[in-house]
Amino acid sequence: MTVFDVTPRARDLRERLTAFMEEHIYPNDAEVHRQIDTGNRWEHLPLIDQLKPRAQEAGLWNLFLPPASSRDGKYGAGLNNLEYAGLCEIMGRVWWAPEVFNCSAPDTGNMEVLARYGTPEQQEQWLIPLLNGEIRSAFSMTEPDVASSDATNIQSSIVRDGDEYVINGDKWWTSGAGDPRCKISIFMGKTDPTAAKHLQQSMILVPLDAPGVTKERMLTVFGYDDAPHGHAQMTFRDVRVPAANMLLGEGRGFEIAQGRLGPGRIHHCMRLIGQAERALELMIERAGQRTAFGKPLSGHQHVREAIAHSRMEIDQARLLTMNAAHMMDTVGNKEARGQIAAIKVVAPNVALRVIDRAIQVYGGAGVSQDTPLAMMYAQARTLRLADGPDIVHTETVAKVEMKRHAARQG
Amino acid sequence: MTVFDVTPRARDLRERLTAFMEEHIYPNDAEVHRQIDTGNRWEHLPLIDQLKPRAQEAGLWNLFLPPASSRDGKYGAGLNNLEYAGLCEIMGRVWWAPEVFNCSAPDTGNMEVLARYGTPEQQEQWLIPLLNGEIRSAFSMTEPDVASSDATNIQSSIVRDGDEYVINGDKWWTSGAGDPRCKISIFMGKTDPTAAKHLQQSMILVPLDAPGVTKERMLTVFGYDDAPHGHAQMTFRDVRVPAANMLLGEGRGFEIAQGRLGPGRIHHCMRLIGQAERALELMIERAGQRTAFGKPLSGHQHVREAIAHSRMEIDQARLLTMNAAHMMDTVGNKEARGQIAAIKVVAPNVALRVIDRAIQVYGGAGVSQDTPLAMMYAQARTLRLADGPDIVHTETVAKVEMKRHAARQG
Amino acid sequence: MTVFDVTPRARDLRERLTAFMEEHIYPNDAEVHRQIDTGNRWEHLPLIDQLKPRAQEAGLWNLFLPPASSRDGKYGAGLNNLEYAGLCEIMGRVWWAPEVFNCSAPDTGNMEVLARYGTPEQQEQWLIPLLNGEIRSAFSMTEPDVASSDATNIQSSIVRDGDEYVINGDKWWTSGAGDPRCKISIFMGKTDPTAAKHLQQSMILVPLDAPGVTKERMLTVFGYDDAPHGHAQMTFRDVRVPAANMLLGEGRGFEIAQGRLGPGRIHHCMRLIGQAERALELMIERAGQRTAFGKPLSGHQHVREAIAHSRMEIDQARLLTMNAAHMMDTVGNKEARGQIAAIKVVAPNVALRVIDRAIQVYGGAGVSQDTPLAMMYAQARTLRLADGPDIVHTETVAKVEMKRHAARQG
Amino acid sequence: MTVFDVTPRARDLRERLTAFMEEHIYPNDAEVHRQIDTGNRWEHLPLIDQLKPRAQEAGLWNLFLPPASSRDGKYGAGLNNLEYAGLCEIMGRVWWAPEVFNCSAPDTGNMEVLARYGTPEQQEQWLIPLLNGEIRSAFSMTEPDVASSDATNIQSSIVRDGDEYVINGDKWWTSGAGDPRCKISIFMGKTDPTAAKHLQQSMILVPLDAPGVTKERMLTVFGYDDAPHGHAQMTFRDVRVPAANMLLGEGRGFEIAQGRLGPGRIHHCMRLIGQAERALELMIERAGQRTAFGKPLSGHQHVREAIAHSRMEIDQARLLTMNAAHMMDTVGNKEARGQIAAIKVVAPNVALRVIDRAIQVYGGAGVSQDTPLAMMYAQARTLRLADGPDIVHTETVAKVEMKRHAARQG
């Protein structure tokens, strides 16, 4: 409970979401893993299809779109970032849960981009089916051959040719591309390598069935393939798409990326906090059940310290993230960029520490398939890299701070 | 700027306080140290006496008393814990500033105890002069011969003898006793060593000029004597005080301690955050002024990382502390005891890390008398010990968390 | 280069081993993974079979047996712990390399137990084929239902019945049991639950094809199955083995465990140091190749700090481990138990920090199958648990230290 | 006991030194502080004068000069760096002890410079009285107005004028200048600001009684003035010294600094390790004496963890330092520069962590004058700055490592 638990509407949604998680998500966790492990790993999971209509009926659908993007509630639930943050934490507690509520990455970010910047035609063709949960989407930005933390490194090209754009490039960590329902990717590449640094890039819609688009292989994350979602390495060879697939206009890729990033970071961080909370609960549970050297694990001070430090770190990370969400809602993404950068450093590192402590309390079970901990760790670890490594965001925090200091000094 | 900056009244006080600090405190820092170093170290500082009436005129006086203790504004400004927290941070930026506003420890805690639990006579005799800033006070709890983190260890005795109590015991870290205006101490000792654990202790008012009270020596903190405030080691030998000096009643020492602790911890933590903010500002200032290896220090990535991590840690610690204050205001000290314990661990450690980084950026100046950093470090270091060492509060956080978990599990 | 590089013989072996690694191991790393990923994962790898005779020819075979266990060189190379340590580090740089030299766990520990405590018949039947690399072995100690860090928790039973023992129990993390050539396991269980604490346990040889022995499933470590070696969960239901399979005698399980542990920990730690060195090399390599924000990664100070701290930590961990080996060689395992406990805490944590930094420098490639880093991390993480979690060894270090202090005080 | 305990001669000296410490140093610690606190703080201590002849008689005098500097034993004991390291640790356990053995900084470094580079006349005039312990010396390098971590920043000038040099500059942290017997300082300044970067600087001998030399004030370190040794801020205004006072030659200041630094860092680090060992002993002592919550402090797991981690860190730091000493002895200071840089980062940080844990175990006593801990902390903290801040040495370690890697890659 914090000062942030403000609106009755958010509190109501939180209660209903928690109830849904308890009724439909936690009890089905084992079944989801059974379906993945026993079928073709890259098929859509029947269970998730069964749960989606229930979430829709329960009014727990497309909760993520903030008012600015939802065109006054035309799309989505119209929750502001602070209201959604608390819900995102709850969904994030189980890795496959967000999709049930049509709130999973990278679909959320893609839908937000389409809602904000898409033409009516683009929205009709791609946004509506995405909002309905009928198709899924990917985001193709990172490239295998360059340090993508520096976006100016990007080598992919998007070249106008008559009514079409011709797309070439190698991409990897195209997450979600493993799902057979993944139909569309937002692709980032350079339309004009000679333009000013931040005007070289564009984003364009590329259907995954377009000729020249190839899924080369699926990447693993600490041994996990994250099926059926997955992370693809892809090649784009002379892929032709209609010129109308361009988003917002040539050279505006950075602008879109900026707008996309803020909410996405809140989401990632709140899901991580949800994971950390769950890891802490599991840790406490185990600490009460196992006995070593004549007393329960919770009777050992270092276990209690693990619990206490986890609580202190999680609470701080949550408050920081909710404060960043609140800043976005009140002063805007640009003014809040320091706060947004800060949570992107803090939340993954806190989650990793908490999960790691839980693993240690569990012993061998902690690294095995018998707890969700090792998989949680692997996923959280990628978030110190994905969407910019720690150092990039740390530099942003420093830059904002030094500017603020200079302004104060006059 | 955070979600916590709520009431206009708090915002107004913050602005006026900031202006006062800029006009009267920062510019006089050097003069205060000059007065200490050139006079008798243990005399009251003339400068502080000059500033007190100005603070009173400015309406910046006795800001600390929360409504529950202020008898509906009869005493103090009637600010709640959250409102005061932000002000406490600002005053805390300079170690001698709180006294100017009559908001310095241990007077604040003592005044709160007297306002809450004192008889009208006790209030007349001691609270009113304290509220007027005419006298100062001390708190005698810690003992040199036992681990005082475990309050049941306390060996001092308070024995009823007719209309008097006879007091015996050795105390140290009686902070503030160095000041010649320190007239009274709240003394903790056992009235009944055979009672139940938490009913053995009592608190009683002991005038420092009572026969049998001796200041044995002043303690140093690292190499600082913290004159003229100071930390005394004291002996109490057959000290007789009127029975009416007993606070609340025999055996109620723990009860008083509990009530006293919550606000005191908010104050300590917010002052630490103020110190950390100031250290961060000093760090940034130096980073822009000095040059090494062909660029300003701020051109070196490790300095920028020091700045960024300090900002991230301070913001988290502040949010955690303000949230704890908010919890105290809304659900009460007892319900908020986990949060109060958490800040007592987090804030001193954060402050120490930030100050230490600032020292490193300053080089030799950082450990010397030329910056306030080393003294800030020494003071912050004691707060990992004073009022309970880290581990005691860490255990509280764990206990609360495990109980909460058990309650959730039904 | 350290003071420990002493004997010419060790130096010679180190050079030849390094040459072998460069000629036969590193270049075949990709092929090993191809064989695992394309065949039946649980078949023995042809490549390793081809390399074993070459290692034998090169005189790089069974290097691990210290003189005390090698019966004066009857078995093994007769290297002392310090001499072997440096070789173990080199082999450990590639996870599958030790088997090529017949120096992989748990075979090494098992062979040492058989060499030290086995009867001539036991040695004939199991030790000789193991020394020849014809069969492989497992060690069944950890149990899924209890905290095995406290060995007194073990629930498996070994009951004498005429000329046989009847074995019952659930075991997991029986590493190596995935290999089809794994023929024998050393099984730990209680022969007398009523005996004094350290006399309840025994170790006995259990052929894996004995009726009642079932591999229930293979465990994953993070997402890795570590095929074809693997980690099995196994049940032993009324398994009958000849009474002659008992090792050393009933109730002497702890005694054997103690003897086994010292060298095993040196081996684990030196392999971890080898892994850390390789991670550091990979980190430096990448830092020179990739460019971000206009300069190579190595031009960024935080990357150089990652390199420097890795070097400092690895060097300290190696010196600590080699010193522990030296102590074992000179004053014996019992006297060196504090040092042995210390390395078991230090080395895995150092390796994890170094590998984690390397992952961060690599970005997405670091967590994927394109570098060995994520797998190295997963394996190193288990070594904060396997063979006792950090806290157990930390407690040993403290105990030894406090005893030493007490002895000094007289 | 480590592998480094090699020569019988070193072992013998260690035993005799330990005996001397027990007989003459530890029992006099309180008396030393009494003499400082009750007399004129800046007078030479009578007790130390009484102990010096005893140390000489015991053959424990000038142990620090390595063979290369001792002119084949003409001066000093002729111990190599590894042999001396162990002795330096023992002397370092008490801050005032090294002077008793004529082994205190900065005299040791100054004597080494004079022994190596001094002319016969310089040696006659300054080295002999220093070796006899009759006078003391200082080293004037750091300047208040620039980042002295970058030696090219130095602003002091040394200008030839006929048979003299004219010296101008501001210096601070001229340690040892507080002692009335301090007669001479080695002064670093620029003789030719237009020369190549590393040829601009020179070192020259400046008698402290030369006209124009002024001790402006004494600096404090966390409140300590470190009397009677002390750290002076000094001005040099048109100070004239004979041209013969130049050391080695104009422009060779860097060269001398390089030679001086290696052994000096070993000494600093081994003294720090001695301090850390003593802090650990004090921690264990207290942990056995105090009781909290029904058991001795040592019965609390976090105290045992503090003990264990301190032991593990100290042992690693000592091995690293002894290995660096061994490298200096065998491959030379230049080849060992990576190792020397590493210990300068590792040892102070380890000492600080250990001392800080000891403070925490002691509670209030830990920060006060009742234990040596706070003073030890303050001194150790300066060593993360003095003689180059952590980052400078960290960069050296990285540079050496990357070069080594490049060499290996061919």
TrEMBL record, chains A, B, C, D:
Stretches assigned to the Acyl-CoA dehydrogenase/oxidase C-terminal domain: 251-400
GO CC entries: cytoplasm
Coiled coil: none
Domain Acyl-CoA dehydrogenase/oxidase N-terminal, chain residue ranges per copy: 8-134
GO biological process, one term: fatty acid beta-oxidation using acyl-CoA dehydrogenase
InterPro entries documented for this protein: Acyl-CoA_dehydrogenase (IPR050741), Acyl-CoA_Oxase/DH_mid-dom (IPR006091), Acyl-CoA_Oxase/DH_mid-dom_sf (IPR046373), AcylCo_DH-like_C (IPR036250), AcylCo_DH/oxidase_C (IPR009075), AcylCoA_DH/ox_N (IPR013786), AcylCoA_DH/ox_N_sf (IPR037069), AcylCoA_DH/oxidase_NM_dom_sf (IPR009100)
Flavoprotein keyword on record: yes
Gene3D superfamilies with a match to the protein in the record: Acyl-CoA dehydrogenase/oxidase, N-terminal domain, Butyryl-CoA Dehydrogenase, subunit A, domain 2, Butyryl-CoA Dehydrogenase, subunit A, domain 3
Family classification: Belongs to the acyl-CoA dehydrogenase family.
Protein name in the entry: Acyl-CoA dehydrogenase
